[in-house]
Every structure is written in structure tokens, then in C-alpha cells.
Amino acid sequence: QVQLVESGGGLVQAGGSLRLSCAVSGLTFNAYVMGWFRQGPGNEREFVACISRRAGNTAYADSVKGRFTISRDNAKNTVYLQMNNLKPGDTAVYYCAAQSSTVADSTPRSNYNYWGQGIQVTVSS
What is the Cα–Cα distance from 60 to 51, expressed in whole angstroms? Predict the structure, then answer.
């Protein structure tokens, strides 16, 4: 049974930082591209960041570039999202996801095979 379990969310003031973790089990972790998505109130789920299987390549949404950093530890089957200089607009439920395909573009959510249950991040002004 595949499980992706997010942790590290919560309430933070604008300008603060949070680190999300996603622990993965039930699949060969280093065979999957890992991504983070988010869904704010009234919005569709949107791409935030992704990281290649061996962590050699990353990609970010323009809205988080320079503030968020995605990383992974294949020995621990865990992917992380370090979020700095948080803004109220970052308030959303954050999801980690796993993609098995080798497509060049890992931003569409339709490319991902498995999803976590999501975790709330709230940034107050």
C-alpha cells in the first residue's frame, strides 16, 4: 500500500518559515519524481515545486521561486519543502505527490500517480 504522509504545516506570521516533510512508503522512492502542490481557498490545485529522482534537477512555480526549496533524502524516503519569507498568499493545503513517468514536464498534476492527504499552511499578515 502506497502512503505519502505530509507533516510540518501550521500557522505562521508573514515573513516566517516552515519546513514541510513528506514520508513515503510502499513504492521504490528513488524511481519517482516528487512534487509539491497547493490548493488555496477557492482555487484549483497548483504546482509549487518538483525534484528529479536523484535530486539533480528542480523546478519551481514563479510565485515561490527564491523563497521555497525542495529537496529529498532517498535514504529516508522523504521529500521536503523549505518555505521562507512566507506571505499570506501562500496560505493553502499543501500536497506532496509522486510521479513515475519520465515526461520532461513535471508541472501538470495529471502526471502524478500518488498523492498525500494534504496539510494546512496558514500565513497571517
Answer: 9
Give residue-wise pLDDT tens across range 1-18. 999 999 999 999 999 999
pLDDT of 101 > 90? The answer is no
Which SS3 state, helix, strand or coil, does residue 111 take?
helix
Q: Distance between alpha carbon 104 and the CA centroid of its chain, in Å?
A: 18
48 near 36, Cβ under 8 Å? yes
Taking Cα atoms as reference points, which of 78, 96, 114, 80 lies closest to residue 38?
Answer: 96
9 φ/ψ sector (left φ>0, alpha ψ -120 to 50, else beta): beta
CA distance linking residue 125 with residue 110, whole number of Å:
33
Q: Look at residue 64 and tell me whether its pLDDT is greater than 90.
A: yes
Give, in order, the Cα–Cα distances in Å from 83 to each of 38, 87, 91.
13, 10, 12
